[in-house]
Amino acid sequence: MSFIRISHRLCMVKNGSLPVARALHTTHISSDFFSWFKKKKAEENEAKVPAKETTELIKEIESGKKSKSVVNNQKMKLTPENFIGKEPAQLDRAEHQRIVSEVKFNSWISKDIVSNERRLDELLIESYNESYPGDKISASSDTKLDAEFPDLVTKFKFTKYLQAKSGCLISDYKLTILNRPSQYKQFFMDEILSGKQARYKEAEPNAIHLTQERFTSPNIYIIPDIDVKSQNKKYRKIMQEVRLSEAEISRRAMEDAARS
C-alpha cells in the first residue's frame, strides 16, 4: 500500500470574485512496511536456476540445447563492444577496394611531367620517329618538324605518343589548331613549361584562365584567381580568430558569473 499526499488550495483574485485553483502539488511515493514485505516475498518466490556441472553444460551446448541461464545471458547492453562484425558501409568499402585492386588499368600516360626544354626536344624527336616510320630525324632543329602532318592518322600517332611520354594532356581545341610538330613545341613552351597550366586542371570547369592584361576595355574587370594554398591559409586564419573570439566570450561569461 502506498500513500500520496495531495494538497489543493484556493486563492482569491484581488480584482475579481471568482476563485482560481492552483496547480496540483504532489510529493514522492513513500513505501510502507507492507510494500517492503510484498517485494521481499516476491524475491523469495522467484524461481532459482539450479547450478549445473561443467560437463552437463558442455553437452547441452554441443547438442544445441539452450538452458534458461543461457537465454538470460543473451540479453546484452547495446554498447559497441557487444556487437560482432562490421558495419554495412565498411563491408561495401572493403568489397569495392578488393574489386578495384583486381582490375588491371591501362595507364598509358606517364606520371612524370616534362619539366625542361631539353627533355621536350627529345620527346619531339621520339614522337616524330614513332609516327613517321620511314623518315627519321635526330635534332629538334630539323626543318621536317615545320612541315604539316600528311594525314590525321600520322597526327594522331604523334599526339598520342607525345602525350604519353610527356605526362600532359592536350585539349581538343589545341589538337584542332596544331597542324605541325613545331607548333606542339611552342604550345608546350607557352602552356606547360611556363607554369601556366599548373594553376588549373583542364578537366575542371575553371580551366579558363583570364587576366586583366588581356582586356583593355574599361568596363571589364577580371576577379583575380586565388590559389588553393592561399584559400586554405585564409580559412585557417579565420577559424583561429573565431576560436579566440569564442574563448574570450566564454572567459567573460565565467567572470561575470563569478562576480554575481
From TrEMBL:
Using the record, list the residue span of the signal peptide; answer none if the entry has no such feature: none
Q: Name one GO cellular component term.
A: ribonucleoprotein complex
Cytoplasm as a keyword of this entry, yes or no, is no
Q: What is its main location?
A: mitochondrion
Q: Where in the cell is it found?
A: Mitochondrion
Q: Which InterPro entries does this entry report, sorted A to Z?
A: ACP-like_sf, Ribosomal_m50
Q: Does the keyword Ribonucleoprotein apply?
A: yes
The UniProt entry's sequence similarity note says:
Belongs to the mitochondrion-specific ribosomal protein mL50 family.
Q: Which UniProt keywords apply?
A: Mitochondrion, Ribonucleoprotein, Ribosomal protein
What name has this protein been given in UniProt?
Large ribosomal subunit protein mL50
